[in-house]
Specification:
GO terms for molecular function: CoA-transferase activity. With 233 residues, the chain is of the alpha/beta class. It contains six helices and eleven strands. The chain has a domain of 162 residues: 3-Layer(aba) Sandwich (Glutaconate Coenzyme A-transferase). The strands form two sheets. Strands 1, 2, 3, 4, 8, 9, 10 and 11 form an eight-stranded mixed β-sheet that branches. A three-stranded antiparallel β-sheet has the order 5-7-6, covered by helices on one side. The protein is globular and about 50 Å long. The termini are far apart.
Length: 233
C-alpha cells in the first residue's frame, strides 16, 4: 500500500515559496491546520493568496500570517473577527475577494472533482456577478464561477492513516474535506496517525487518493472563538 507519511511539518511544506496560492481548511477557529500555518510564518514566505472561509483572529490562525504581512490577497466568505484584517483591507494593504459561503465551498469542490467551473444562483443581480457570465436554466438565472487553482491545500483532520485516509470530527468537517485534492499538493495534518488499513472504511470521510502528504501534528490549541457562559438556573 502506498504510504503518504512525511517526517513532520518541515518535510510536509517542502516546495512552498512566496507568491503561491494556498487553500486552508477550518471554520472559525475549528479544524485549523495550526502546525502548517505556524511553519508558513516561520518560513517567512510572502505575497501569498490564501483561500479560506475566514481569516482567523488577530493572534491565531491566518491572523498570524496577516500580522507578518505575508498575505497579499484573501479569498474568503467571512472575516468579521479579525481587527488586523479589517485595518489592512481598509488601508488598501490587502486585496480581498469576498465570496458567498456556499460558492466558496463549491469552487473548492469543483477543483477537487476536476470541473473547470460551476453555475450558481448565488449572487446573481448583485456586485458578486459583475463582469461574470450569466445564463438562464429553466427560467432561473445563474452566475458562472470558476474552480479555484491552488498550489497547496492545508487541511486538519482528527485521525488519518499512512495511506492518507482521513476522518474529521465535529465542525472540523467543514471546508477541510472539499479542499482535499483541490490543489496540486494536499497536506493533511492529523491529531492521530495510525498504520494503513486500521481505519474502519465506513468511517473514512476522505480517501487517501486526495492526499499527497500526511503527518501527525503537535500541540493543538483548539481555541474557542466566542466563549459564552451563563449562570446556572
Amino acid at each position: 500500500m502506498i504510504k503518504k507519511t512525511v517526517s513532520g511539518v518541515d518535510e510536509a511544506l517542502r516546495g512552498v515559496s512566496s507568491g503561491m496560492t494556498m487553500m486552508l481548511g477550518g471554520f472559525g477557529l475549528c479544524g485549523i491546520p495550526e502546525n502548517s500555518i505556524a511553519k508558513l510564518v516561520a518560513l517567512g514566505v510572502k505575497d501569498l493568496t490564501c483561500i479560506s472561509n475566514n481569516a482567523g483572529v488577530d493572534d491565531f490562525g491566518l491572523g498570524l500570517l496577516l500580522q507578518q504581512k505575508q498575505i497579499k490577497k484573501m479569498i474568503s466568505s467571512y472575516v468579521g473577527e479579525n481587527d488586523e484584517f479589517e485595518r489592512q483591507m481598509l488601508s488598501g494593504e490587502l486585496d480581498v475577494e469576498l465570496i458567498p459561503q456556499g460558492t466558496l465551498a463549491e469552487r473548492c469542490r469543483a477543483a477537487q472533482g476536476g470541473f473547470p467551473a460551476i453555475y450558481t444562483p448565488a449572487g446573481y443581480g448583485t456586485e458578486v456577478a459583475e463582469g461574470k457570465e450569466t445564463r438562464e436554466f429553466d427560467g432561473k438565472m445563474y452566475v458562472l464561477e470558476h474552480a479555484f487553482k491552488a498550489d497547496f491545500a492545508f487541511v486538519k483532520a482528527w485521525k488519518g492513516d499512512e495511506a492518507g485516509n482521513l476522518i474529521f470530527k465535529g465542525t472540523a468537517r467543514n471546508f477541510n474535506p472539499c479542499m482535499c485534492g483541490a490543489a496540486k499538493i494536499t497536506v493533511a495534518e492529523v491529531e492521530e496517525l495510525v498504520p494503513a488499513g486500521t481505519l474502519d472504511p465506513n468511517q473514512i470521510h476522505i480517501p487517501g487518493i486526495f492526499v499527497q502528504r500526511i503527518f501527525q501534528g503537535q500541540i493543538y490549541e483548539k481555541r474557542i472563538e466566542q466563549r459564552t457562559v451563563r449562570q446556572r438556573s
